Structures are given as structure tokens and as C-alpha cells.
Amino acid sequence: MTFPRRGLPAIAAMLLCMCAAASNASQLPHRDDLSEEDRSRVERVTRPATAYSAPEKFEQMPGGAATSRKRVGRDSFSHSSANLTFEEEQLFKVGNGLFKKMWASSPSSTQASDGLGPLYNARSCQGCHLKDGRGRPPRPGDEAVSLFLRLSIPPQTAEHQALLASKEVLSIPEPTYGGQFQAFAVPGLPGEGRFDIELEDIEVPLNGEPAAILQEPTYVIRDLGYGPLHEDVLISPRVAPPMIGMGLLEAIHPGDIEANADPDDTDGNGISGKVSRVRDVATGALTIGRFGWKASNATVRAQSADAFSGDIGIGSPDKPAPWGDCTENQQACRAMPHGEQERLGPTEAPDPVLDLVTFYSENLAVPARRDVGDAVVLKGKEVFHTIGCAECHRAKYVTSRKAANPAHQFQLIWPYTDMLLHDMGEGLADGRPVGDATGREWRTPPLWGIGLTETVNNHTRFLHDGRARNLLEAILWHGGEAQVARDAVTALEPANRAALIRFLESL
């Protein structure tokens, strides 16, 4: 079996060869990128674990040949894929510079860096994704930067209904404030406002231990800069997710995602994951949404263009509006100077800026696992699988041979996600539909790297709004399709519950 990269792919090839079996065309019929010989090998190597006395082969390499094996530290989410070529490593470093770039308001003497806003949430990509990691709610007295509010309204007209049905849009923006609430603005313009977070304690009993105390947040918007919000406004808080492994997630074969979907729960296990369908920005065709808390973008490039526009207010070839999320009802915003420079290109971030930031984002490496052979970690892995966590947090895949970047092709990866939308219950519901995702549904987030959150970002805040203060709280917020697994966690003996957390910390 030939792999497209040197070094570590050869190790993966050895693994697949050890798992070789007789060709069986009935296995993985949805994988049109595989030969009949390969299908049996891939099927065998991606089977869920059934033995827990020792780690699985190459389990310590969750990103396949792209895994970073550099020393654990604050930069653990900022290393490049280990299997990039020398030339690709140079592109990665240039993209890193643009990811960290601080944009300035127009007009500016640094013409290649102006165009900020006019309304924005951060001045750089790194401003939300600090150290390429996970955002958090603001601490008391701090401004919210890596947590912001999505806005929309229910469809009001037949035209709105038609736009949603065709998926030309996935939600209807709030008429004045747009799709995102932006607290900051360039000089001479008011920001859209501020918000406070009010917390209510919820007690959750645990077998053999004191009850856990969850904190349910409520968001109160104040100091509105452009008049009242629509009376039916829908609000959803979002923290910035970690950036690692995104190119590998895009390289998962669509058939593997489709094969795990069960929207009608035909197997009767209470889990009915469904695929998010979105429009591909480049082609207009319906495709699988993979990125964002509700799987609303199909590609890393689309996610990056949305962030440039919504978070920073920077136009790019894919979303060229220089005013970002300013609406027609914010004429003062649209009248502000913009950063388009004819000599530099037709948008504020002209080619190849978006290409380079996309490449960087696609190639942030997943760190190597720690302590995969530890007895407590292995016990926690057994608990994880036996109580049903792996039904949604699917452990492993072999990526497509047709992936656009050879570094992502045919890699055994361990992201712990099925990339599907699931009903997570009323406790986590935001009541705000986005495309195929209802107000109770979220994409299963990947778990790889989750145990290094505190090391990289100096906090342990999890879930879409950072409400969970640790991994156990994150589990206890699960409901809906995950209610049975969540209840199993509360009923575990304390030692087994601690082992489950220890396993998650090893990811």
C-alpha cells in the first residue's frame, strides 16, 4: 500500500497491512475512494474497541502521520502537521503570521492591514482563538472577546421561508444588528452594545460523591447602540473552538459521515444523528456541513471567510463586503471608510490572504496522546465505550484518498466525533435553528486535544458557551439523545467516574 507522505505514513501502512483481510466488496460500499482490497483493511482498523487491557495500535497518534509529537506546553495547539513538505511548512508559517495579524481601522498608514470592522468582535483571528485553542466566557470585569452572541429571527415572510428552504441562507439575520452581536467599533462609531451573564446554580446528585453544582447562564443585552432588537430575536452564545485537526476533519470521506446518520432512529437505540446540509460556497451545490457548533460550514475556507467577515469585519474574495456584518439599517456603519486598496486587490483581504489562513487552519496539528497505556486511562476508555459515549463521539476514521491535501490523505485518525447533529436536550438548547439544526441540536464536537485545554488556554471551560467549568460538568449538561449515557455517568462508582475523566484528559 503506497502512502503519499514520508516517515510516519509508513507506520500507518504497516498497521493497515497487519489488518489486511480477504477482499470483500460488500464492506464500506460508501467509500468510492478505496479499492476492494483496501475496504476490508479500513473496515477492520476502524472497528470500535472491544478490549481494554492495552492501547490499540497507534492510538497515541490521533492525527495519523500529521500528529505533532513536540513537547507538551502552551504551544501544543500551534504546531504544524508533522508530514508537511518543506514548501508547505513555509506556507504554514506565512499563514500563521496572517492569523495573528492585527487589523487596523481605515484609513491607516499600514494599507495592507486596514479595513477593520467597522463593527467587530476581535482585531485578529488569534484574538478569539488564543494560542489556536478554546475560548471562554469573560472573567468578571473583562470584555467578552472569545465568546460572542449569534443573532437571528424566525422567518417573517414567504421570501424568508423560501431562502431557508433553498438554503441560500441558514438563518434570517436580526434586521438591525445582523447575524452577530459586535461589541466593538472603529473610532467615531458606537459598538452594538454589551451583555451580562447571569448564573443560576443547578444541583446534580452523583453516586458516592457530593452533588455537582452546574451553573446555567442567562444573557442580558444592554447599552444597545442602534435601537431596540427585534421582538422575536433569537440569541445563541458561542465560544471559539480549538483549531487543531480541521483539515483532517474535512478529509473524512462523506460516505463515512452519511453511514453513521440515523435521523429516524431506525435501530431504536435512542440516538438519531443527522447530516447537516449546506451550500458549498464555491459551487453552490448542497454538501455536508462539518464546521461550526451547528455544522453550518462545509469547508475550512468557508469557516475562515465567515470569521473574517463576522468577527473582524474584513472582506475577502468569498465574502467581499467591506462592512462585514453591518446591516442596511446601520447606515453610519456602512458609510465608514473601508480598507479596499485597488493596487493590492479587490477586497480588504485579497488573494492569497484567505488561501494562506485557510492552509494554516487546515494544518494545525493534533498533539500526540499521553498515557495511553495507563491502567486508569484504559479503564476510563472502557467506561466511555460501554456506557455509550462512543455512539456519538466516534473514535476513528481513515481519511479519504481523494483529500485535497496529500498530507491529509488516507490517515488513521482519532477525532472522537461523528460530525452529525444531535438533540442534546432542553438544558443545552439555545432555541435558535440554523439550517438543518434545530434549537436543540448541536454537532458532536471532536474531543481530540481536549485534555490539553488547561495547558494551552489556562482554563477548563467547555461546551458551546463555556458554561461547563470542567469535563464532568460538560458531561452532566448532556441530555436528549445523550441522556442515557449522562445518567450512567451519575450512577457510576466514583473510581469509574474518575477513570472516565482521566481518559478524557488523555485525549
- Give the helices and strands as they follow along the chain: HHHEHEHEEEEEHHEEHHHHEEEEHHHH
Q: What is the rounded Rg?
A: 23 Å
Helix content: 25-40%
Q: Count the DSSP helices.
A: 15
Instruction: Give the end-to-end Cα distance, rounded to a whole number of Å.
Output: 29 Å
Main sheet: strands, sense, barrel? 3 strands, antiparallel
Strand order within the widest sheet?
3-2-7
Q: Specify the overall morphology.
A: globular
Total strands: the figure is 13
Layout of helices and strands:
Blueprint: H1 8-18, H2 36-45, H3 86-100, E1 119-120, H4 125-128, E2 147-152, H5 158-166, E3 180-181, E4 184-185, E5 194-206, E6 209-222, E7 234-239, H6 246-250, H7 254-260, E8 277-279, E9 286-288, H8 300-312, H9 331-334, H10 353-362, H11 375-386, E10 397-398, E11 412-413, E12 421-423, E13 441-443, H12 453-457, H13 471-476, H14 483-491, H15 494-506
Helix pairs in contact: 3-10, 8-10, 11-15
